[in-house]
Every structure is written in C-alpha cells, then in structure tokens.
C-alpha cells in the first residue's frame, strides 16, 4: 500500500533482476481478469509450492476449464440451501466456547469449522460417517493445512492422500453397486466426478488440495477478522445483535436459507467491510501470455495505454485497492460497515419482501471491490463462503449476548493463504 501511495496506481520495477508491473487501476484490473488468454496464471507453478502446482488456482486453458466445470456444481444453490451439516459443525464449534468467561482463541476454531464443512462439500463426507480416529486425523490435517500447502515433506505429500484413501475406496464401491437405491437422485460430489476424469493420484492431490484450501482458509480468515473487530467494537456488536434478533428466531430456532438470503442486511454489510479491510488474498499474480497492453498506466502522464511484453509478471494488490482513499473516502482505513448501507425510501419499504427493512446494501463502482477476484476466474465458492459465514455468525449471536476482547495488542496480519490474524482472535 505504501509503495502504491508513493509511486502511483501503476508502476514498474524489478526484484532480483526480474521485472514486474504492479497496478491497482480498475480499468487495468478489468483487462487482467477478463482477458484470460492474454494474462495467464501458469507462471505460478514453482517448485516450492508442490501441493498447488496443478490445481484450479494455477491452471490455465483446457486444464482450468475442466477443473472449473467439475467444481462449479458443488456450489449449486440447491446445495447451499441444505444447512443440516453446517448446523452440526456450528454446534460443535459453539460447544468449545467456555461459558464461564474463560478466554478462547476463535481463529483456530473457525479454520477447523470451515475445513470440516469443506470436506462435506468437496468429498461428500457427512459428520456421522467419520470414526473418532478419522476425526482426529482430520483435525490434525485441518490444523496443518497451511503448512502442507508450503512444504514438500512427508506431511504434505501423504497427509491429504491418506485422508482421502478411504473416501476413494468407498466411492469406487458405490460406483460398482450402481450408485444407490433405484430412483434416488444422485448427489453431486466433486471428488466422485473428479475420479471419472483422472485416477492419477498426483493430479487428484493438486485438485483436492486447492479446493480444500479455498473451502477452509478463506472463510476461516474472514470469520477471524470479523470477530477480531466485533470484540473491539461494542457499537457494531449491538447493531448486529439487533439485526439477528430481527429474524425472530429466538435462541434455538435455526435460520433458514431464506433468512440468510433475504434478511440480515447489517450482517452482510459487516461481511463486505471485513473483506474490504482484510481481503483474504492480499496480492495476486498474472503473467503476460503474449505481447499485450493495459488501458492505462503508460506515457508521461500515466494515463496512456501501457505496453506489457510477453512473460512480464503482473502484480495486483486487493489490499491496496480496497484502501484507496480516492475510492473509499478519507476513512478507508477504518472498519465502518455503514459505508455499505443505503436507506430505503418509504415506497421501497412498502414494495419490499414483507420483512421490515430500513436499509439495503449499497452498490460500489465496478472493479473497485474484488474480494473473490473477478471475471471468468471469479471464486466459484463465493456464495457458499457467504452462506457459511452468515450461518455460523447467526448461531453464535443467538447463543452469546456479549463479547469481550482479551488481547490488547494492535492488529497484525499473518501473511499467507489466506491472510489471518497474527496473534489469533482472543475473546
């Protein structure tokens, strides 16, 4: 952010003799994220990131289209509306929060919650199908997921595959039996469809690792940052409590998919503001697949088209983009959910859905807010992430009426995938 502030919204430089172009101009971002034949991700396949070398996050061309086509149905609206599995994992997490006022570190609980929920979505695992031993192994893998993504040692090569071995065998047995009872509608499971495309264990590792990293890490990081802020902002907590109470569910009734979709405007504003302030992915990379241009950033005034030679690395920073004061105002560095709210007119309230709402979410200019990326490669799981986060937050707010900060240290980020709170979320 400081470098962009000092040099402008598009600049060029080099690291260890390797030239790069960095930009946070919305017009350039639109070109980078929509012209996928010009701007590639394949330059990212580097030896020290073995778990992700062939997954959807770094694939291009036919390989990416195949992986995307397989993964997309796993996040269908019909699957998002099935909240029973989320309820089980939510209650498991809530049960670990002490009722005697003791301190709890929430970030690790959130990451485990999203890992467990992700397994159900990606490999079709239900909570009542897991033995105590397998659950223990699953917990260890969830805790060490970040390490596994960055190391090529025994854990990263064996851990994910060991977990998936019994899943693989079970799926093959089911296929041999014909896939269930006659007339049953077959549930779409990403892993089942993946083994129809490839049985190569290395490719399976790549695809499942990237899918699980996305399912676990991004939503876990989002929840950790939200509760880090809530613990320090009693005013925001009170407004959120009123928003949840407005659903009329009391302390025990589970929220429905419609509750999450049609209500909770202030909660959605909190989610948006957290993703603006603390984007899960701070920076992202592309490589020019051929000689090309960007709409702006060139010439003496920096407003002319900018030539980008083939092979040039391009860096974009969502963190810097989301903190631009010319786009977000002088308070861009402050956590203020209200920036996302727009008051409804009396006519709009009367024409509403029947739910009493004073506000709606405010739209922002295109290409200024990119928490899930954009263009053809936008995160396929973004809607699931928001449903998952909303559901857990509502269940926590139904259970606990107050929150207290137990850590007076200033915010510090832990760089990684995703960006997390360095010292955890202590409440």
TrEMBL record:
The keyword Calcium does not apply. It comes from Bombardia bombarda. Its cofactor is heme. The keyword Signal does not apply. InterPro entries: Cyt_P450, Cyt_P450_CS, Cyt_P450_E_CYP52_ascomycetes, Cyt_P450_E_CYP52_fungi, Cyt_P450_sf. It comes from the Eukaryota. This is Cytochrome P450. It holds the Pfam family p450. Keywords: Heme, Iron, Metal-binding, Monooxygenase, Oxidoreductase. GO terms for molecular function: heme binding; iron ion binding; oxidoreductase activity, acting on paired donors, with incorporation or reduction of molecular oxygen, reduced flavin or flavoprotein as one donor, and incorporation of one atom of oxygen. PANTHER family: P450, PUTATIVE (EUROFUNG)-RELATED (PTHR24287:SF17). Belongs to the cytochrome P450 family.
